[in-house]
Specification:
The complex is a heterotrimer.
Chain A: H1 30-34, E1 50-56, E2 62-68, H2 70-74, E3 78-82, H3 84-88, E4 116-117, E5 123-129, H4 132-139, E6 143-148, E7 174-181, H5 185-191, E8 194-202, E9 205-206, E10 214-220, E11 225-230, H6 235-246, E12 253-256, H7 272-284, E13 288-291, H8 294-300, E14 303-304, E15 307-315, E16 321-331, H9 344-352, E17 361-369, H10 384-402, H11 406-413, E18 422-423, E19 429-430, H12 435-446, H13 448-460, E20 464-476, E21 493-500, E22 506-510, H14 519-531, E23 538-542, H15 559-586, E24 593-596, E25 599-602, E26 608-611, H16 612-621, E27 635-641, E28 648-660, E29 667-677, H17 684-704, E30 733-739, H18 756-773, E31 782-783, H19 787-793
Parallel strand pairs in A: 1-13, 8-31, 11-12, 16-17, 22-23, 29-30
Antiparallel strand pairs in A: 1-5, 2-4, 2-6, 3-5, 7-17, 8-15, 9-14, 10-11, 10-13, 15-16, 18-19, 20-28, 21-22, 21-27, 24-25, 25-26, 28-29
Helix pairs in contact in A: 9-10, 10-18, 12-13, 14-15, 15-16, 17-18
Chain B: E1 5-11, E2 14-20, H1 26-33, E3 52-55, E4 58-61, E5 74-76, H2 78-84, H3 88-97, H4 106-119, H5 125-131, H6 143-160
Parallel strand pairs in B: 1-5
Antiparallel strand pairs in B: 1-2, 3-4, 3-5
Helix pairs in contact in B: 3-6
Chain C: E1 7-9, H1 14-24, E2 28-31, H2 37-42, E3 50-53, E4 63-66, E5 69-73, H3 78-83, H4 85-90, H5 92-97, H6 104-107, H7 112-118, H8 124-131, E6 135-140, E7 143-148, H9 149-152, E8 153-155, E9 158-159, E10 166-173, E11 179-186, E12 196-205, E13 208-217, E14 224-225, H10 227-232, H11 243-253, H12 264-280
Parallel strand pairs in C: 1-3, 2-3
Antiparallel strand pairs in C: 4-5, 5-10, 6-7, 6-10, 8-9, 11-12, 12-13, 13-14
Helix pairs in contact in C: 11-12
The chains are: A alpha+beta, B alpha+beta, C alpha+beta.
Chain lengths: 798, 165, 284
């Protein structure tokens, strides 16, 4: 099995007859997907639906001089050609800043660029036609006259005097800056026995969801209502934004998310072409479908993770880490991305560096600068992969200088398991972590002594293997600390409505949706156990703002912890209401009754008193038989927000075992391990698979993925042939184990698990490579770790 | 130039008689003209494998085959595979192992796996990894998919040897 | 990314094909496997008025031994070569190289002639043809001519084919007892175009390797024969003691072009590594 069938019963049950929570139940929703019967946006067809394509800026920065639509308009099937001015008449511009990121600035941005395009890929003109093919044909006849403008393309010089200021009204290209200083850093470095430093580079990269971004915008003028079928993670957020940007009542907007072919954060943002597609649908009064093709995805999907960090670590010869210091420079796009902003990633790096460790002193400096490149924003892990790589890379350097084994050094320095609740040096509040336990577990899991012995033997034979570790923390289950406090209307709470059907089935409508991670599966598990029914009696509905409670959706690893808690509370409440109905029908004391396995039973004897189907029949169709004054309430809604902490942190440790071919620079990933503490594991198979997918995604950034730009801001490798994503041939098998430290902030006790894999994998792989290279006194700190970079570090290529 | 051509072909065992523009690729034809939306488009330049279908019994990239080239030939999609039951054990294994998350790569993966099962019944785990290395998955990290295919290889080998699993 | 409109014809004979080619010249493109052409069209990098589907032309199909050569027809697919017993026996170099070509679904349709005619310097077949000193059989309306591999690959995506000429087949000298071949390529991911690759052939004699041929892929605008290194061993055999010399000669004379992520120096270095490894594999 790719996961334990059932985890060791370390945690008390949350349901009286717990059959599904904690069990590796296959997802009910997977069956139709293996049969090819999914329903993705591009599978949906509406009457009179048209298709939009975008003319996008071919260069990093240009003034739009003239748009001549005459020929394009004459092309077969063309229904309309729209520019920024057309769309601006009905769609307001936006500014993507958050109030709690003090001093952050960004310029107003329109759905279609007006007068000036600021990155290669920015949409400028929309062409709508009966078919996609016709729209693409017409695109070739659109005549856009533009003049190239000087571009800011290098983050290192973005603030230099000679670099063009992209938005003169902002004064400079600085989006956000932050400084954090605990006050005793200089002193810590001065008294340290060992100081190590390195400059870390992280290549800008992107999500490459296999299903590209897509939506159908359907404006019904008769109803004056907008329905958007959207491949998106946060339908209520989009509902709010469409309403506000177009001046519609919130109730006039419905967002429906059916099957989503991968999202990873790429699809949690509000893109200019999202609004432009809605605009043209409203202007044409017809449904309009937009599907980003792969080439335009590379320049229009958000990018992430372009950082240069100078990092230092101070330690004592006894082996204690005394301080960390970082200087982080990150290059974003010409606009902060709407509505979650492009400063969050850098802000996270500041918050999270050094995270697992108990040092007291920390100093961080952050500069987030505008560039004429594709806008950046939150992508799986958001700052964690970077903070973890910097931290864990410095930790290994210090350990090496001190002559400590890297695992032992970590064991000495992590925050002890009995120290919680506590705060980290950056001020983050930590409820309860298990670094020590996880480090003990990984030692055994990988059989560290055996690997070390094998490494030594093979080194003698000229085969260079490396073992690398990464301890990590990962924020999950956010409260309103992320966005709400900054003024963004992004819900930090979620809800579940649960209903007993007349025939005894249960329907749950949840405000957190499904993008493949298995949210609907775990909601069914939780609901079944909470109510007391078989799982195959539960139907889960998500992704429709007309149907579900209001909520935040999928981001920051919150689905299980927050959505799951809402489902649990709703299910338990429904069970109580079922028992009230049963007590009324049976004229029994409610305390003597329970719901077990689709029936109301006598708790003392276990005898089945009434199947739920019978209870449903009576409640819905025979109220005449019920006691006066009693009304069954067999549909219950409960909401949940995590309000104990800004975030519920999780922790884990990963290990990577690699072989570096020191002649070719190629890295073979032999194996990867992760011990993860995400609190109560609702479905071990789904969590383990999230870990594996997330780890491979992290490996992508570590070894393969980079958006390569030339000096003029042209993306050089924007195709699947040249932008390298991890494929199966090079990926290792990944072993996952768990520690479960439940959160006390909810009854379910589940924390999030979707991103931790991505957070730790690059660090573990980097440390493994550098461990392999140690005999050569060579190291690499620039991701992706290409064969050439490794050979240059070894001096084999100059 | 977009004049259509009449083509006759078999799709999932059904004879079809259709008119297609020469430039329309096979997957667009299947999805849009025949409503068979189980095959997906991820890149339209032959790299991601999401569009993998079977043409005269061999897997091909549906985005790199013109519909007109399928004239007189036989096409099988994931829907046909499902309805025929030919890959039932493979589909069951995918569900059991959670060898899919968002499901978008799945039809292409199944197609590739079916050809492996047919042509390389003794494939090793490493060979399975190499075989599916032309199908991009962003969700699973591949291991569960490899596990599912290996489960089926083993089960079919046992069945062939007359040993019950 | 939808292809622009084009007309489509499927001639059943070489004559009919040549007639269409003559009538349409540059406006027409030949469609064989389509694995390169159709991707190009989907990206609108090219807008031919007509595609001439040549896959029905019998004369371009089949593999057979003719005298002392193995003749492989233009329409033979990569998968057919990979599975062929004729190839395993008579051109084992191709069997070594075939699994490196892209992925199975591409190999099922992509053709031998298509790859040779497209002449991508990072592709496997052109380098294999060079390593075996194969011959391209070119056909035109006026007849057939044979072009040795070393004269065929002229520049980036440019061959010695004249206007109105196609690759009908290639002829490879038969593998003989005592011949050794080797193939390896370095790619970041299985199936990617090689960063650098090497196809080699030689004859093993008691004294060492003779008749060494080293054809590199991924290093220049065409596949590249390391003639200077080969010449060092024209008169004398190559033994284990001379491997360093061979590697040095390759690195001294190769003039690789950098690509998006690998410098010329990197390619030069990797060419040397591949040379060493393939020669060491020959049990010298």
């Amino acid at each position: 099995m790719n996961a334990p069938e059932r985890l060791p019963a370390a945690l008390p049950d949350v349901a009286a007859d717990q059959r599904y929570i904690g069990v590796a139940v296959p997802r009910p929703g997977a069956r139709r997907l293996v049969e090819g019967r999914g329903s993705y946006v591009d599978d949906i067809r509406l009457p009179r639906m048209a298709h939009v394509v975008y003319w996008r800026s071919p260069v990093a920065h240009c003034r739009i001089v003239r748009i001549d639509r005459d020929y394009a308009r004459l092309m077969p099937g063309v229904l309309g050609v729209f520019d920024g001015a057309d769309v601006a008449r009905i769609c307001a511009p936006w500014v993507a800043t958050l109030g709690h990121l003090a001093g952050m600035k960004s310029a107003p941005q329109h759905a279609l660029a007006l007068e000036r395009a600021c990155w290669q890929g920015e949409p400028v003109v929309a062409i709508v036609a009966e078919t996609r093919v016709q729209a693409e044909d017409a695109l070739q006849y659109l005549q856009v006259e533009w003049e190239a403008l000087p571009a800011a393309t290098h983050m290192e010089t973005a603030l230099a005097a000679e670099t063009p200021v992209i938005h003169p009204e902002l004064g400079d290209n600085l989006c956000f800056t932050r400084a954090l200083d605990t006050g005793g850093v200089d002193d810590a470095f001065a008294r340290a026995d060992v100081v190590a430093e390195a400059t870390f580079h992280f290549g800008r990269h992107t999500g490459v969801t296999l299903e590209p971004r897509c939506q159908i915008a359907d404006w019904n003028p008769g109803e004056q209502r907008l329905t958007v079928y959207h491949s998106q993670q946060a339908p209520h957020m989009m509902q709010d934004l469409y309403a506000r940007q177009f001046g519609l009542a919130e109730s006039a907007v419905r967002v429906i998310c059916k099957d989503v072919g991968g999202s990873f954060g790429i699809k949690v943002h509000a893109y200019p072409d999202d609004f432009a597609t809605v605009a043209v649908a409203m202007l044409l009064k017809r449904p309009v479908k937009f599907v980003a093709d792969r080439l335009e995805s590379f320049t229009s999907d958000i990018h992430a993770r372009e950082h240069r960090i100078h990092g230092r670590i101070a330690a004592s010869k006894a082996g204690d880490i005394l301080a960390f210091e970082i200087d982080d420079l990150t290059g974003i796009g010409p606009y902060s991305m709407f509505p979650r902003t492009s400063a969050i990633e850098g802000n996270q790096v500041v918050n999270l560096t050094g995270g697992p460790y108990k040092h007291q002193q920390y100093r961080a400096q952050l500069k987030v600068v505008f560039l004429n490149k594709t806008p950046t924003c939150q992508y799986r892990g958001v700052g964690h992969p970077i903070a973890c790589a910097v931290t864990e890379g410095l930790v290994d350097l210090a350990a090496a200088k001190l002559g400590f084994d890297p695992l032992a050094f970590r064991q000495r320095n992590v925050i002890p398991d009995d120290a919680y609740p506590t705060s980290g040096a950056s001020g983050i509040r930590l409820e309860g972590l298990s670094h020590e336990e996880c480090l003990r577990r990984i030692d055994t899991l990988i059989d560290y002594p055996a690997l070390l012995a094998e490494q030594a033997v093979l080194r003698e034979q000229g085969v260079h293997r490396g073992i690398g570790f990464a301890a990590l923390i990962e924020l999950t289950n956010p409260g309103a600390a992320f966005y709400g406090v900054g003024g963004a209307r992004i819900a930090a709470q979620d809800g579940a409505t649960i209903r007993l059907e007349p025939t005894g089935g249960v329907t749950v409508m949840v405000s957190v949706g499904e993008q493949g991670q298995g949210s609907e599966g775990i909601f069914a598990q939780i609901a079944a156990d909470a109510v007391g029914v078989a799982m195959d009696k539960v139907r889960v509905v998500t992704g429709d703002t007309d149907v579900t409670p209001y909520g935040g959706g999928t981001w920051a690893s919150r689905g299980a912890g927050i959505g799951g808690e809402a489902v649990l509370q709703a299910g338990l409440a429904l069970q109580q209401n079922i028992l009230r109905v049963a007590a009324a029908i049976l004229q029994r004391d409610i305390a003597e009754l329970a719901v077990r396995r689709d029936a109301v039973i006598d708790m003392a004897t276990g005898a089945s008193l009434m199947p739920l189907a019978e209870l449903g029949r009576v409640a819905y169709f025979r109220p005449d038989t019920l006691p006066p004054g009693f009304t069954p309430e067999l549909m219950v809604t409960r909401h949940y927000a995590q309000r104990d902490y800004p975030f519920i942190f999780t922790n884990g440790v990963q290990a990577s075992y690699v072989e570096v071919d020191t002649e070719t620079g190629f890295v073979k990933l032999l194996k990867h391990w992760a011990v993860e503490d995400c609190g109560r594991v609702v479905n071990p198979m789904l969590v383990d698979e999230q870990m594996r997918g997330a780890i491979v995604q992290g490996i992508g950034g570590a070894l393969y993925e980079e958006c390569l730009y030339d000096d003029h801001g042209q993306l050089l490798n924007g195709s699947m042939a040249d932008y390298l994503v991890p494929m199966s041939g090079e990926m290792p098998d990944i072993v996952v184990a768990h520690v479960q430290t439940p959160t006390k902030s909810s009854q379910l006790g589940a924390k999030g698990a979707g991103e931790a894999g991505t957070a730790g994998a690059p660090a573990a792989v980097m440390n493994a490579i550098n461990n392999a290279l140690r005999p050569f006194d060579a190291a690499v700190f620039s991701q992706p770790f290409t064969p050439e970079k490794i050979l240059r570090a070894l001096g084999k290529v100059t | 130039m977009d004049d259509t051509r009449a083509i006759h072909l078999h799709v999932n065992g059904e004879h079809r008689h259709c008119d297609v523009a020469p430039r329309q690729h096979l997957v667009d034809f299947l999805r849009e003209d025949l409503g068979l939306t189980g095959s997906h488009l991820g890149c339209e330049h032959g790299v991601c494998g999401a569009c993998t279908v079977r043409l005269d019994g061999q897997i091909v990239r549906g985005c790199l085959v013109l519909a007109v080239q399928a004239d007189g030939r036989s096409v099988e999609t994931v829907e046909g595979l499902t309805d025929s039951g030919a890959a039932r054990d493979l589909q069951d294994a995918f569900v059991a192992r959670n060898a899919l998350q968002c499901g978008y790569c799945t039809s292409g993966m199944l197609m590739a796996a079916v050809e492996l099962l047919e042509t390389r019944p003794d494939a090793t785990r490493e060979e399975v990894r190499v075989w599916i290395s032309g199908n991009y998955c962003r969700c699973t990290g591949y291991q569960a998919i490899v596990d599912a295919i290996c489960d089926v290889l083993a089960a079919r080998r046992s069945a062939a040897a007359g040993v019950s699993v | 990314m939808k292809a622009p409109a084009f007309d489509y014809q499927k001639p059943r004979s070489l004559d009919a094909m040549f007639a269409l080619m003559a009538a349409h010249g540059d406006e027409a493109r030949l469609l064989a496997g389509g694995q390169t052409l159709l991707a190009t069209l989907n990206m609108r990098l090219s807008e031919p008025a007509l595609l001439i589907d040549i896959t029905a032309i019998e004369a371009l199909k089949g593999m057979a031994v003719h005298g002392d050569v193995l003749r492989i027809g233009a329409l033979v697919t990569h998968s057919e070569i990979e599975a062929s017993r004729l190839v395993a026996a008579h051109a084992p170099l191709l069997a070594l190289a075939a699994p490196h070509i892209a992925h199975r679904a591409i190999r099922n349709l992509g053709t031998w002639g298509g790859a040779i005619a497209y002449a991508d310097p990072a592709a496997e077949w052109p380098a294999c043809l060079m390593a075996l000193d194969g011959v391209v059989v070119a056909r035109s309306a006026s007849g057939e001519r044979r072009i040795p591999a070393r004269e065929f690959f002229v520049d980036l995506y440019t061959t010695a084919l004249a206007e109105g000429e196609i690759v009908a087949a290639c002829e490879l000298p038969l593998h003989r007892a005592g011949d050794v071949v080797g193939f390896n390529e370095l790619a970041r991911r299985h199936g990617d175009y090689a960063i650098v690759g090497l196809a080699m052939s030689a004859r093993r004699t008691p004294e060492g390797l003779r008749g060494l041929r080293l054809a590199f892929l991924g290093v220049g605008s065409t596949p590249w024969r390391a003639e200077a290194a080969e010449a060092l061993f024209a008169e004398r055999p190559l033994t284990a003691a001379q491997i360093d010399e061979a590697v040095a000669a390759v690195q001294a004379t190769i003039e690789p072009l950098a690509d998006l992520t690998h410098s010329a120096a990197m390619k030069r270095h990797l060419a040397g590594v591949l040379t060493r490894r393939l020669l060491q594999q020959q049990g010298l």
